[in-house]
Write a structure and sequence with these properties.
Blueprint: E1 5-11, E2 14-20, H1 28-43, H2 47-52, H3 54-72, E3 79-85
Antiparallel strand pairs: 1-2, 2-3
């Protein structure tokens, strides 16, 4: 079953959109937010740097998906992160 939940987080002029493409527990969005913050803390990249570099952006998606596989038993690639400028 596909469950396409989307949530946006507004920070100044950018949005982070998370698409969850599978069933999961309600705490999945909190877990994703925590892992996003951990990724930024570990790597030291800014959101702008992540947006502007496809390799870093792909690394972010891999990191979050790996964490969700380990923590919540999700299938890999079940979550897609997108970051964009607000218009």
């Amino acid at each position: 079953m596909i469950n396409n939940n989307e949530q946006s987080s507004m920070t100044n002029k950018m949005s982070v959109v998370v698409s969850v493409l599978c069933d999961g527990p309600p705490e999945v969005m909190n877990t994703i937010q925590e892992r996003f913050e951990i990724f930024i803390a570990i790597t030291g990249y800014s959101v702008e740097e992540i947006m502007d570099d496809k390799n870093i952006f792909d690394e972010l998606n891999r990191f979050i998906n790996n964490e969700l596989v380990d923590d919540l038993g999700f299938e890999y690639d079940c979550v897609v992160i997108n970051i964009g400028y607000n218009n």
